[in-house]
Amino acid sequence: MARVSTLAALTLAGLALAGCGKTGGFSAEASPTAVVGTLELDAAAKKAAKDAEYRALEFGRVGTPVTWQSGKSHGEIVPGPLYHVNASDCRDFTHTVYMGNAPHATRATACRQADGTWQPIS
User: Fold this and answer.
1) Which residues fall within 8 angstroms of residue 67, CB to CB, at 6 or more apart?
2) Spatial separation of the C-alpha atoms in residues 85 and 56, rounded to whole Å
3) How many whole angstroms separate alpha carbon 113 and alpha carbon 50?
4) What is the dihedral sign for C-alpha 11, 92, 114, 21?
5) What is the reported pLDDT for 41?
6) Residue 74's pLDDT is what?
7) What is the pLDDT of residues 6-47, one digit of tens each?
8) Where in 16-117 does DSSP place strands (E)?
């Protein structure tokens, strides 16, 4: 059992290392909001979701939802614990978007870049 946990941790660390070397900001195209973009969120909803993702990653408490709302769409981002990969801070998070009453959830990992932005890596 410990061997599986160690392997999983090493795999996650490898993914984080691969992604944390990327440059760029926390863009709507790279974030989970793009995945839910297929739900036809308007520009205001995409901006609200992106802003909430940043707040959750930068300031959010582990397990405490950061919510957003725009028009008929709303959602929440639940950040996981902060961990370090080399010199980068990374966090896993879940972003759930509600269209009407239907939830659409996405899990992802993001790492803070040198310029202070967060770059999704998965």
Assistant:
1) 52, 74, 75, 76
2) 19
3) 16
4) positive
5) 87
6) 94
7) 333 333 333 333 333 333 334 444 454 444 545 688 899 999
8) 66-70, 73-85, 88-99, 102-112
Query: Can you tell me the distance from the alpha carbon of 92 to that of 83, in angstroms, rounded to the nearest whole number?
Result: 9
Q: Return contacts of 55-58, CB within 8 angstroms, 24+ apart.
A: 56/93, 57/26, 57/91, 57/93, 57/110, 57/112, 57/118, 58/112, 58/118
Backbone angles phi, psi at 53, to 5 degrees: -60, -45
For residue 117, what is the DSSP state?
-
By three-state DSSP, how is residue 64 classified? coil
Cβ within 8 Å of residue 34, ≥6 positions away: 28
Phi, psi angles (nearest 5°) of residue 27: -100, 155
Q: What is the DSSP secondary-structure string of 38-62?
A: GG---HHHHHHHHHHHHHHHHHPPT
